[in-house]
Design brief:
This protein has helices at residues 5-28, 48-81, 96-101, 109-115. It is an all-alpha fold. The chain has a domain at 5-85. Bound molecules: zinc ion.
Length: 116
């Protein structure tokens, strides 16, 4: 066990509240968790070019949110499977400080640096 139950419970709590936040943001944007946007953004813009660029902005923001949503979901899955906090590349423990900063981290700090 890389972490005590306390740390795991805390991480789960953080991830779950992050999930709620992301879902709220997506809902505010009128976006679904699968990336589809239901609300038409074309209304209220003077010209089509502005509407298109605004839509692209929202879409890329939604894309980022959904990517983060998946990260959080898979981190929660790792909490459930008991592999949370373990580096996916080298299998070593990811430091608690790093998980504190990046709760969805899949790699330890040295693997993450090598990847870049
Ligand atoms: Zn590693």
């Amino acid at each position: 066990m890389p972490f005590s139950d306390d740390v795991l419970a805390q991480s789960r709590q953080r991830l779950e509240s992050e999930l709620v936040e992301i879902e709220k943001e997506l809902a505010e944007l009128g976006a679904e968790a699968d990336g589809s946007i239901q609300v038409s953004l074309d209304e209220g813009f003077a010209d089509a070019a502005q509407a298109t660029s605004e839509r692209a902005k929202v879409l890329s923001f939604v894309e980022g949110l959904i990517k983060h949503l998946h990260d959080v979901q898979s981190a929660l899955g790792r909490v459930d499977r008991g592999s949370y906090g373990r580096c996916e590349r080298c299998g070593k423990e990811i430091g608690p400080e790093r998980l504190e900063a990046v709760p969805t981290a899949r790699l330890c700090i040295s693997c993450a640096q090598k990847k870049r």
